[in-house]
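Internal QA ticket QA-208
Title: Verify multi-chain structure generation after dependency bump
Assignee: T.L.

Test input:
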Amino acid sequence: MKLATWNVNSLAVRLPQVLGWLGAHQPDVLCLQETKLTDDKFPHVEIEAAGYHVQWFGQKTYNGVALISKLPATDIVRNIPGHDDPQARVIAGTVGGVRVVGVYIPNGQSIESEKFPYKLAWLAGLRRWLAQECAEHPRLAVLGDYNIAPEDRDVHDPLAWAGQVLCTPDERAHFQGLLALGLHDTFRLFEQAPKQYSWWDYRMLAFRKNQGLRIDHILVSDALRPLVAACVIDKPTRKNERPSDHAPVMVTFTDEPAAG
DNA sequence: ATGGCCTTGGTACAAGGA
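Actual output:
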């Protein structure tokens, strides 16, 4: 079984790349962020024609998430129950015995912005809800664009980014709070080459210089952890013509988690 | 070269992203 996440920065623009990526990598689940499409405009026909089921939840211009899966997803949840939010940022479903939670965590813009307390409140709401989800679904994966670089080694220039949004102690404490629920950052379950990132600014030749951040993550529960065989950031996809500014991240399991 | 983008809405350029 293979789970993946990708912030596509507009599905209207990136649909051909998403269809190509599905064909090439054959994931069992792909969570998308920043579809930027209202639900009536979501290209489900094209995705279904590629042999996938899909659930989606979007809005105009900003945000928007989708859950693409080979098996149909059940028990769909949109956004965080009990946490009022006008923005479309979460889609969750159960696929093949695994509870899959796709998240687009707010950016926060800057610590002076009112978007920053919105981000912190959002993270508190997410944690509260995920505590329940973990209790109800031992086989749980939380994947998406977290907009948090968990540690300095996830940042190309930690000094320049120190205290900046995506790297603040408050945000990193929230990330640790998610791990404290019994979740594991699958990328760090393995020895990894240094300087691996999942996002590079479009500006400043950042990708060519590998000036990036690792902000897209796949977390899994205790029960799934022993089944994780690999976590890979698909950097080559960031070299596509008309790329998203994010690379996909994918996890492969040694066994079908649904089998147990 | 201490800069260098991309997307949307809407039709000029502002705003948001990270």
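Spot checks passed. Chain A has a mean pLDDT of 96.
Status: verified.
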